[in-house]
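Sample A.
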Amino acid sequence: MGENEEPQGGGAPIAAAPEEPLPHPDPHRATVLVIGVVATVLFVVLRFAVGLGGHDPLPVDVWWDDVMLAGLSDVGVVMAWVPAIVGGVIGAPVVGLLIIVIFLWRRRRWEAATLAVAIVTVTAIGAPMAAIIARVRPSESLAESVDTSFPSGHTAVATTIAVTLGLLLRRWYVWTLGVVWVVYMMWSRTYLHAHWASDVLAGLLEGIAVACLVWSAMQAYRVRRAMSSRASSAEPDA
């Protein structure tokens, strides 16, 4: 049969199924990666600064703790407990799982996987580190008593979720809500005297580092996996 002839039976030529387009490398990936590395370096520097001080509060920690203590009120305590509960040991995993389920329901598997990996990573890093460092919390703590003050786990997880969602969804209101939530969390942890100011700053840097590095790694893996799959399917049969 000639190249342009129709197949026997008069049927129309069978067109080849169009290939699924490859995901394009995100043009912002290099910038995000640099931000993640810078946040990691700053976190390490802050960790050494705290360590050199014998894990005692820094001068800025004492000043900020006095400011929070001077402004303490019943209404403020109630407001501070909201993010403490929502972003706590039970609240944070529930919120994260709910967002992941929504991504899966909308068939956005890569987004769900990226957020899941980021949350697991920040928890796996922060919790053991806080236990090992065992920095003493402010004596007036209204929320915590265990010596696991550095870094702030609440702040780290909140920042990780906020930054990861911002990178995945690319909506200004997602970034805005994320910034508001993280600042609210940082204020809450110091207002309840559960952390020193340097603890929440460390949590912020940890969250930024984890979110940026995990997102960058997942983006690179997604593109490489798609290219590898395309190359394998294009190989002629032996």
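Sample B.
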Amino acid sequence: MILFAGDPHGYFKHLYPFVRGKEDIALIILGDLQLTTVEELDKLSQYCDLWYIHGNHDSKTVAAFEALWGSKWKNRNLHGRVAEIQGKKIAGLGGVFRGQIWMPPNKPLFLDPIHYCQYCSQEKIWRGGIPLRHRSSIFPADIENLSKETADILICHEAPKPHPSGFTVLNELASQMQIKHLFHGHHHENFDYSELAPQTPFAITNVGFRSLCDEKGNYLLKNIDDRKNKS
């Protein structure tokens, strides 16, 4: 069974009842792990096949960044690639759109991290590359590279349309990749697409704040977050 977890924001205890004592569980976290150490991932992975994509909060601090990109767990980030998990081809697009890089449908300011570094000041360079904040920004090259692949499932941190804060470019990507189901996090309200997106050739599920669903989009746990600031 494949389970999809919405933004944990540093809290993981709610996931254990669904993976402990079970067999053949793959757990995929849809961004905003917001870690301070790798200890939590090490513990959780004892009970499941653990994967993730990063969200915007995963490059807000050096500690959050190091826990994912500076550890063995970087190999479990599905961003920018397709992996076969329990017989399903799953593609990942982590991060968010930011106006300093690209805010669709506007034209992008930079195509990829190398392009950004060519034009930014040296004070902004961090560890020989783009600033820490933009380690979780989506570049056009991320979309272009994935569009050449095919998959059964696409996981994103950002939302597609018809979510009020969604992006049509993700719908286009999903169609190009011939996916059957798109799962996303970031928005904490478990947005219901059932009546708004009947015309899409693929299903869409928003797995909200500390929520959990199966690969058919059935919620196993809903934890609604009423906070105004979802970013």
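B remarks: The first strand starts at residue 2 and ends at 5. The beta strands are 2-5, 26-29, 49-52, 82-85, 88-93, 153-156, 181-184, 203-206, 212-214, 219-221.
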